[in-house]
Design a protein that fits this description.
Elements: H1 3-9, H2 11-23, H3 36-59, H4 65-81, H5 89-99, H6 107-120, H7 123-135, H8 137-144, H9 148-225, H10 231-260, H11 281-290, E1 295-300, H12 306-326, E2 332-339, E3 343-351, H13 365-376, E4 380-385, E5 390-397
Parallel strand pairs: 1-2
Antiparallel strand pairs: 2-3, 3-5, 4-5
Helix pairs in contact: 1-2, 2-9, 3-4, 3-6, 4-6, 5-6, 5-7, 6-7, 6-9, 7-9, 8-9, 9-10, 9-12, 12-13
Length: 409
Amino acid sequence: MDVTELRAGGGQEYRWALPSVLLGDGLEGRPVRRSTRDWIVDVAMFLVACGITFLSLVEMKPQPEPLLAVEQVAGALACVAVWLRRRWPVALSLVTGLLSSYLELVGGASVVALFTVAVHRPFKISGPVTLLNLFTLAPYVMLRAGTDDERMSALALGVTFVLLAFAWGIVVRARRQLVWSLRQRADSAAEEAKRLERERIAREMHDVLAHRISMLSLHAGALEFRPDAPPDDIARAAGAIRTNAHLALQDLREVIGVLRHAGPDEGDPVPDRPQPTLADLPALVEECRQAGMDVHLHLRAGGAPESLGRNVYRIVQEALTNARKHADGAPVTVSVTGGPGEGLSAEVRNPLGVRHGARLPGAGAGLIGLTERAELAGGRLEHGPAPDGDFVVRARLPWPAQTSGEGDA
């Protein structure tokens, strides 16, 4: 199995098997499926082994017929065995290295096998195999070389071939490790980007729908609690339900439209949907008042940057939604103060009340999302009961002195 097939498969199998495919670690004795590139490299290695064997045969001194026949047969078999170098690299290197301690025509296959071990096995394996190949030069020099000069020349040539094969293999292995590391980083970065995008989408969906659905529940609960209300009140509540349902569908359509705007192969970035700012807070509070909430807004901040105003808007929106869920009928006070250089503070305070209808379901994900939003903006968020018995959501976000915004509250 090659890298292309693994990448096409994707997932955990690709990430687990990629080091083994690139480096060959731990694949001793397993069947090998060669790619086109692998076939080209294997043919080149076979030709290298055959070339070295042929040169050794040309330079070989006259030998007795039986020894020459053994040399030729062993050299031919060793060259053929090079095709097994991917499946049994260590075994092939050990066998050819030991045979090369006396047989000269096995040297070409021994060099190729050593190079394969250096590429496909870690140093704790390739190092000892290289030392063994160096030690096998001593018997060859002592038994096959004639004069002292021939021994020195044969020893120097043998050491050069062994060290060059080992060094070349180490360089190739290091490059493959670098490629694998870069791919791992790229995959990790892609997974992290996907995770962050999923969290952003989930946060956006929650911010968009939780407020609208809570408004629907509030008006529907009023109709259920007061079925004998005047016709005008019933019509007003039904109109509010219809309006909020329409707005919820519109917001949902906008979010889905943003997700569908650009595919993965398109170059244009996916734009953000239109976002509220600090200037939209009065409209939010007025909407809550029309739904029957007793909300008081104290807004003493102007000119906030759009991103800062959007974060404060979402925090206040979620806090008001929680107040409708858990303290129906209790007065709510919203205070937003701050300025450039001193930061922007938002506080939503309401007495802990008792709901008259069924409690809306919730798992605390909204407050968790608000805490994450505040931390991502470089600020902090606190929530919980205060000593005076009120429930308080308090956030403080940084507002750099040199930053100016376009929205004006």
